[in-house]
Amino acid sequence: MSAPERIPPRGVTTSATAAVSPLDLLTKGELTVKGQIREASNAVLYCSVSYEGEAAHCVYKPIAGERPLWDFPDGTLAQREVAAFELSEATGWGLVPPTVLRDGPYGEGMVQLWIEADPGAELLALVADDEPGDGWKAVGTAEVGEGRTALLVHADDPRLRRLAVLDAVMNNGDRKGGHLLPTADGRLYAIDHGVTFNVDDKLRTLLWGWAGEPLPAEAVEVLGALADALADGGVLSRRLAELITPAEVAAVHARVTALLADSRHPEPSGAWPAIPWPPV
């Protein structure tokens, strides 16, 4: 099986005549820190990057600024962000912005193309009704203050459904609403993949609307291509092995195999909180 044709990333020139690819720009370009994104839990720096006449904005997360986590080895979150990009690229869905591991002003870290989100795009909502309504999928109830609850819903959107599959494969432990970046040109990107690829089941997401439903034919085809790329000596397994542990690479392959065997979207395991907090 072959994955769908890869879609060029948004944000820099990607024509056949472009002198610099997005990955070359991020890897080889001069990185200049412009400011800090202070609401992030780890050090996140807003930067510009320029190389041979091309320029863009990007995010730089130095490994030195990562907070220790009890369930992930210290100093590995940046590599996991890059692994998420590599996995996304292997699907052909292009859901993760171009992301590289490189040296920067504060040492080695993850550098990712900045994506401008469309503030008018609505993918998540809280509704007072008991049912989600046409075009929406129910996630669960949420407290909204003073003893009141509302139904948390997400759009019944094929882009989100692709992302739900990708999150299941990478075992994303923190898929929040603020990590979803729909763009004005109709694309969807997802960011913040530091807590991924754990060998233990840690899937925690707002995208449970399809839980238990059969996987779309497109997803089954993509998973089949991933299984081939993750087989012993496969190109994806070799690339991931540069970023995460052998046990974690094997766990990715196992999750793909399990999804193909079941042919359904996973459901919450009950062994781990199903929805991240806070959810945005």
Question: What count of helical segments does DSSP give?
Answer: 6
Give the neighbour order of strands across the main sheet: 1-2-3-5-4
Report the helical percentage: 25-40%
- The count of β-strands is 10
Radius of gyration: 19 Å
Overall shape: globular
End-to-end Cα distance, whole Å, is 36 Å
Given helix and strand content, the structural type is alpha+beta
Following the backbone from N to C, one meets helices and strands in this order, namely HEEEHEEEEEHEEHHH
Describe this entry's structure for a reader.
The protein is α+β, with helices and mostly antiparallel strands and 280 residues long. The protein has helices at 22-28, 77-91, 158-170, 217-230, 235-241, 246-262; strands at residues 30-36, 45-51, 54-62, 99-104, 107-113, 124-127, 136-145, 148-155, 180-182, 188-190. The strands form three sheets. Strands 1-2-3-5-4 form a five-stranded antiparallel beta sheet, sandwiched between helices. Strands 6-8-7 form a three-stranded antiparallel beta sheet, with no helix packed on it. A hairpin with a 2-residue loop joins β7 (136-145) and β8 (148-155). It is globular, with a radius of gyration of 19 Å. The chain starts with 21 loop residues before the first helix and ends in an 18-residue tail after the last helix.
Topology, pairings included?
Layout: H1 22-28, E1 30-36, E2 45-51, E3 54-62, H2 77-91, E4 99-104, E5 107-113, E6 124-127, E7 136-145, E8 148-155, H3 158-170, E9 180-182, E10 188-190, H4 217-230, H5 235-241, H6 246-262
Antiparallel strand pairs: 1-2, 2-3, 3-5, 4-5, 6-8, 7-8, 9-10
Helix pairs in contact: 4-6
